[in-house]
Amino acid sequence: GTQQVEFSLHQRRKHTMKFATPLLLAILLESTCGIVTTKSFPQSLNCVTRAHRTRGVMEMRKRAPSETKGKSQIVLTKDVTDVGVKNDIKYVKTGFYLNYLLPRKEAVLATKEVVDKVNMENADYVANEAKLDEEAKVVVSKLEAIKKFVIQKKADSAEAGSKIYGSVSIPEVISAIEEAADLKLNSPKMSMPKDKMNLLGDVDFVVTVRPNIAANLELSIAQLVE
């Protein structure tokens, strides 16, 4: 009888410990994660697992190297080859800034005052460029309204394709355009077929007044009649 009682007590303790440990763990997890009921043991485990993963991600982010570490944010005061143009705001290695750009007065640190000034200058620059583009479009309209410009040169024959004495130069073409259109061209880019500039006849050419703003024109090289 005594052995049977001891055996029953042993089974009862074993049975109690079997369920008490998970219950205590559940209560501890739930109190940590803020879950009210103690019936959601798997939910508690999920909460801790999520928290562990979150801490792991945050630690990885803290350990990730910064792209700007060891660099300084600067504003270029001049065009610098392989770096940028004036008023560009960039990150460069601090040593490069201190030992190269700063002594040459090619850059300054991008303080708030400097950046504000650059942004204002850039805004003024953009506004001025837009104004110049509009003026260039007006010039192109005038030139294309005339379309054909004439230059006379000495030649032994009036037949198209005949050689003239010398050749027509680009300054001569610009002068003829300005006189006919009654305007002044500011250093235009001229695209002309050089192999036809010493022959009588009509030549197609392009005058670029501003970047991406150009006029398609014709030049008539005619025999000079004296």
UniProtKB/TrEMBL annotation:
Family: Belongs to the bacterial ribosomal protein bL9 family.
Protein name: 50S ribosomal protein L9, chloroplastic
Alphabetical keyword list: Ribonucleoprotein, Ribosomal protein, RNA-binding, rRNA-binding, Signal
Keyword RNA-binding tagged: yes
Lineage, broadest ranks: Eukaryota, Sar, Stramenopiles, Ochrophyta, Dictyochophyceae
Leader sequence residues: 1-34
GO cellular component, one term: ribonucleoprotein complex
UniProt record, GO biological process: translation
Domain Ribosomal protein L9, residue spans: 84-111
Alphabetical list of InterPro entries matching this protein: Ribosomal_bL9, Ribosomal_bL9/RNase_H1_N, Ribosomal_bL9_bac/chp, Ribosomal_bL9_C, Ribosomal_bL9_C_sf, Ribosomal_bL9_N, Ribosomal_bL9_N_sf
PANTHER family in alphabetical order: 50S RIBOSOMAL PROTEIN L9
One Gene Ontology MF term: rRNA binding
HAMAP family xrefs: Ribosomal_bL9
Keyword Ribosomal protein annotated: yes
A Pfam family of this chain: Ribosomal_L9_C
Organism of origin: Octactis speculum
